[in-house]
């Protein structure tokens, strides 16, 4: 995701290659990312930290303690804006882990950022200002849409839009398989499904109408669509999708590592 965000910023000319650097755990990853992006990517980036005015942290939650300790030891300035995309890590948790008054912005993007169609959500921490939030929003708008939201919604946001592409890929796979079942070549079935999903999503975005109203437009009396919809309802598709988001939300809530020295 970090690589995707940097590429989006470079492609949109929001930053130049000389203004950005990156760090990774292995030399192999550094070499690959450097070749792809045309920027400096290093295992030991500590010497760069004191000069940075914005650092985007794209690691797993269980790596947070190590990364934040490394930044602090490297001479992180207290005015450096820190943006985290770590799932389940609240701004309060991050502020406690780091133990400084750095401004934090928490973000939740999703993988369609890779093709410039991401959906990202941001919120500000205790020390972040409106300007900090605007800077973070600008980063994610380079790879799709971005909207601010209250942090209390973030676990649900992570489960819905963060995990959402995986749910839709499963649904698309099932529909393509259904097309094969009724006689379509697999590639044709997948092409039909993918563009149908894109078109339906665009209809929701551009028309401003409720999905139920758009569904009714397709559903003629005694037609094939209503027959298919009844089968989906018989299979409890609504409750299954709702339960999937509910379960993912519960899991997100337990992803954050404990704060060192705490009893939780």
How would you portray this structure in words?
With 264 residues, the chain is α/β, with parallel strands linked by helices. It contains 11 helices and 7 strands. The chain has helices at 2-11, 27-37, 64-73, 91-98, 130-141, 154-162, 164-181, 186-207, 211-218, 224-234, 237-252, and strands spanning 21-23, 40-42, 54-57, 81-84, 104-108, 118-124, 144-148. The chain has a 5-stranded mixed beta sheet with strand order 3-4-5-6-7, with helices on both faces. The chain is elongated. The protein starts with a helix and ends in a 12-residue tail after the last helix.
Which spans have pLDDT < 50 for at least 5 consecutive residues? none
What share of the residues lie within helices? 40-55%
Count of helix runs: 11
Bin the strand percentage.
Answer: 5-15%
Structural class: alpha/beta
């Amino acid at each position: 995701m970090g690589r995707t965000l940097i590429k989006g910023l470079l492609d949109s000319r929001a930053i130049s290659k000389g203004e950005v650097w990156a760090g990774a755990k292995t030399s192999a990853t550094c070499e690959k990312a450097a070749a792809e992006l045309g920027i400096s990517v290093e295992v030991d980036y500590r010497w760069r930290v004191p000069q940075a005015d914005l650092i985007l942290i794209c690691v797993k939650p269980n790596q947070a303690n190590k990364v934040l300790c490394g930044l602090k030891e490297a001479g992180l300035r207290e005015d450096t804006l820190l943006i985290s995309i770590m799932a389940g890590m609240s701004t309060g948790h991050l502020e406690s882990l780091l133990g400084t008054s750095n401004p934090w912005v928490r973000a939740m993007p999703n993988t369609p950022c890779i093709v410039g169609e991401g959906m990202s959500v941001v919120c500000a921490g205790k020390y972040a200002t409106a300007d900090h939030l605007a800077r973070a929003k600008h980063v994610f708008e380079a790879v799709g849409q971005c909207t601010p939201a209250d942090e209390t919604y973030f676990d649900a946001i992570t489960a819905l839009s963060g995990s959402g592409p995986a749910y839709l890929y499963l649904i698309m796979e099932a529909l393509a398989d259904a097309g094969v079942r009724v006689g379509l070549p697999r590639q044709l079935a997948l092409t039909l499904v993918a563009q149908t999903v894109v078109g339906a999503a665009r209809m929701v975005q551009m028309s401003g109408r409720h999905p139920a109203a758009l569904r009714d437009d397709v559903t003629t009396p005694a037609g094939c669509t209503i027959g298919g919809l009844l089968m989906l309802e018989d299979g409890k598709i609504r409750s299954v999708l709702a339960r999937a988001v509910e379960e993912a939300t519960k899991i997100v809530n337990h992803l954050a590592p404990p704060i060192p020295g705490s009893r939780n």
